[in-house]
Amino acid sequence: MSLDLIKEVRQITGAGISDVKEALDEAGNDKDKAIEILRKKGQKIAAKKSDREIKEGVIATAGEGSKVAVVGLGCETDFVAKNEDFQAAVKGLAEKLLEMGKDGFTDWATKYIQDELIVKIGENLNLVMFDILEAKTVGTYLHSNKKVFSALILSEGSEDIAREVAMHIAAMAPKYLKVEEVATDELDKEKEIYREQLIKEGKPENMIDKILEGKVQKYYTEVCLLKQPFVKDDKKSVGEYLKDNGIEADKVEKFVYFSL
Known about the structure:
Blueprint: H1 3-13, H2 17-26, H3 31-49, E1 56-62, E2 67-75, H4 78-81, H5 84-100, H6 105-121, E3 126-134, E4 137-142, E5 148-154, H7 159-172, H8 184-200, H9 205-223, E6 229-230, E7 233-237, H10 238-244, E8 252-259
Antiparallel strand pairs: 1-2, 2-3, 4-5, 5-8, 6-7
Helix pairs in contact: 1-2, 1-3, 2-3, 3-6, 5-6, 8-9
């Protein structure tokens, strides 16, 4: 069993030296058989590790401009999440998603994770999320910890401005794009809570509805992206910031926020 053969199989599979030696021994030093053994072992490892809790992970993106692929891969420990090989693997998943599209990606990625990555990384791994964002303008932001991703998708407008708002989304985590999207039952529940608070505070009955409307408007500024005070200039809303930069509200198709 030559050292060069061990190194070659390690480079291909990312498996540890002892696992490579064991596989080569079982395969009679046949490189291809050894690789197959290690991949099958990866599936066995995946089965054994599948009940171990996913607590960490990273997000990676590929592409820019009008088309961006994003993938989130979960792992067990922060140690692995910070590992360069793991981060490169997630980046590779994003690049593959951009290349092949969403159809069939789940099956391909699941097999790749089980057959190769779990052997190499040695932890339970899980495909947490993936998506392809495609529009006239896609502005994205990935936080330095690689655990928070956000994007603003426009039918027209500046990518730089969209990216600025994507940074705001990462910081403020809005639930809705605009007021009209707020769920009626959620709004009714908020109103009920506010009304009970006002009654307990002893506010006059004839003033409650007026005060209530003010509280609802403030609630909108907390949960609706276009109503939120812009993080880089809280004297204007995100909607006003966009309008000042030539982007009307109807040009905003959607936003994306994801956190591991």
